[in-house]
UniProtKB/TrEMBL annotation:
Annotated Prephenate/arogenate dehydrogenase domain residues: 8-289
Organism this protein belongs to: Chlorobium limicola
Official protein name in the record: Prephenate dehydrogenase
Domain of life: Bacteria
Keyword line: Oxidoreductase
PANTHER family associated with the record: PREPHENATE DEHYDROGENASE, PREPHENATE DEHYDROGENASE [NADP(+)]
UniProt xrefs under InterPro entries: 6-PGluconate_DH-like_C_sf, NAD(P)-bd_dom_sf, PDH_C, PDH_N, Preph/Arog_dehydrog, Prephen_DH
GO molecular function annotation: NAD+ binding; prephenate dehydrogenase (NAD+) activity; prephenate dehydrogenase (NADP+) activity
Coiled coil: none
Classification lineage: Bacteria, Pseudomonadati, Chlorobiota, Chlorobiia, Chlorobiales
A GO biological process held by the record: tyrosine biosynthetic process
Length: 289
């Protein structure tokens, strides 16, 4: 960051797995020289023990005072999607006009539209990372290292000082950044994130009677079925059209595959396996596995 940074204070609204992992990553990625970032936050689910323990994760202040909370250069919304959208009204009321707002929601079109309506400078942010465990005690700065963070900016805020420093903080933490518009983001994640979740959930329910005889391959495919509906509730409701379309198109692929198997069309099946093998090698290189 520059000698006179534009981002000096950051507020986190929601201190779960991703929000706290981002907090820890920002704490470690800032330069050694110069005044450190002041980071404060709030989470409505925290008890008194949580409020003390979160300070060990790099938070400087846990506060329930809205004026104090929203008095920041950068506000990171890391609550569920619909809660993040609702919080924009509070930001409009309590935060200064120069604040930059970002979020870690899994969908972007609706929150970007709401921020635009309220005249709030906003850059959507989606860290493509996660784990089965939830909550700030499962958070770790390494959760985001070498992971892609998609940035959605329709108003050129990334070209402004705070936008540039946000990218610098992310890249200093080892993240890869990628830019796309909110609507395209929601279409893409419906394909590579939301569809796999739905299929994993469907698979384990479909195979319920036989899972005691399953092996590690089945467990790998069913891993996402452990995800909490409390998180996916908002994702589905804010991206239902794209998710439904992906499911419908995938259902067509399943019917075609079933036909190839039934008719013993080994040429088509071999072609599918060959293409999948090539794509899997690409995927392994992308994720360094």
């Amino acid at each position: 960051m520059s000698e006179h940074p534009a981002i000096k204070t950051i507020s986190f609204i929601g201190l779960g797995l991703i929000g706290t992992s981002l907090l820890r990553a920002f704490r470690l990625s800032q330069p050694v020289a110069g005044k450190p970032l002041f980071m404060k936050g709030y989470d409505p689910s925290f008890n008194e023990t949580d409020k003390k323990d979160i300070l060990d994760c790099g938070l400087d202040l846990f506060t329930t005072d809205k004026k104090t909370l929203y008095d920041a250069d950068l506000i990171v919304l890391s609550a569920p999607v619909e809660a993040n959208i609702a919080l924009l009204a509070e930001i409009r009321e309590y935060a200064g006009s120069s604040v930059l707002v970002t979020d870690v929601s899994s969908t972007k079109a609706l929150i970007a539209e709401k921020a635009r309506e309220l005249g709030i400078p906003f850059i959507g942010m989606h860290p493509m990372a996660g784990r089965e465990q939830q909550g700030f005690r499962a958070a770790h700065e390494e959760l985001l290292r070498e992971k892609t963070v998609i940035l959605c900016d329709n108003a050129s805020h990334l070209e402004e000082p705070k936008g540039k420093e946000l990218v610098e903080l992310l890249e200093s933490a080892g993240c890869r950044t990628m830019l796309m518009d909110p609507e395209n983001h929601d279409r893409i994640v419906a394909n590579i994130s939301h569809l796999p979740q739905m299929l994993s959930t469907l698979l384990i329910n479909y195979c319920e009677e036989n899972i005691t005889a399953s092996g590690p391959g089945f467990a790998t495919l069913a891993r996402l079925s452990g995800s909490s509906w409390s998180i996916w509730h908002d994702i589905v409701l804010t991206n239902s059209g794209n998710i439904a379309l992906e499911l419908e198109q995938f259902a067509g692929e399943l019917l075609t595959l079933a036909s190839d198997v039934k008719n013993e069309n080994v040429e088509n099946l071999a072609s599918r396996f060959s293409k999948a093998n090539r794509l899997y090698q690409t995927l392994k290189k992308l994720h360094n596995t």
